[in-house]
Design goal:
The chain is of the alpha+beta class. The longest helix has 12 residues.
């Protein structure tokens, strides 16, 4: 007897055409898809003025929350190029990684984005402040301590500056 599986909604990373992230977000909203486009505020300088603008944190990527069966509809959205895949199958993004991105942006933390591959460092958890509970790898960069959050699916890192007094070493494994 066949067992019917209940479709599970997961986060997937969609790769978009360059500078199409906001248009894709609007189209996904109109289609009724839950999605997340991490945006950061940047001060832009033109010849005659300066202005704060919101730009995608990770260029050419947007995250969509759906079942694998609904993914084709999301892929048919104008501006979407493909879904990030692993071994030929759509690669789900862990809920914890989406939550970590949201926490970092909501906390207005000082961070850097990097596609650089880092050597594995000490596993740490932030113990105080608005990022309390966030786990990552401790890195030292330009004599400043930072916590590395790795978004494996889109091969990006986020380095968050942190006072080492707000960290403690953990031995448990985490994704």
């Amino acid at each position: 007897m066949a067992v019917d599986r209940i479709p599970v909604e997961r986060w997937y990373a969609l790769y978009t055409k360059s500078r199409n992230e906001k248009k894709v977000k609007q189209s996904l909203d109109e289609k009724g898809f839950r999605n997340y486009l991490p945006l950061e505020k940047r001060l832009k300088q033109w010849s005659d003025r300066k202005k704060w603008v919101e730009e995608p944190l990770i260029r050419s990527y947007i995250f969509v929350h759906c079942t694998e069966g609904q993914l084709q509809s999301a892929l048919n959205t104008p501006g979407v190029v493909t879904v990030v895949r692993f071994e030929g199958k759509p690669a789900p993004v862990q809920e914890e990684q989406i939550h970590a991105l949201q926490q970092i942006l909501e906390a207005d933390a000082d961070f850097e984005i990097s596609a650089e591959t880092f050597e594995k460092g000490e596993k740490v958890e932030i113990t105080a402040g608005r990022l309390k509970g966030l786990k990552g790898e401790l890195q030292e960069h330009l004599n400043k301590y930072k916590v590395l959050i790795r978004l494996d699916v889109v091969q990006q890192n986020i380095l968050v500056k942190i006072n080492p007094a707000r960290l403690h070493r953990i031995t448990e494994k985490f994704a």
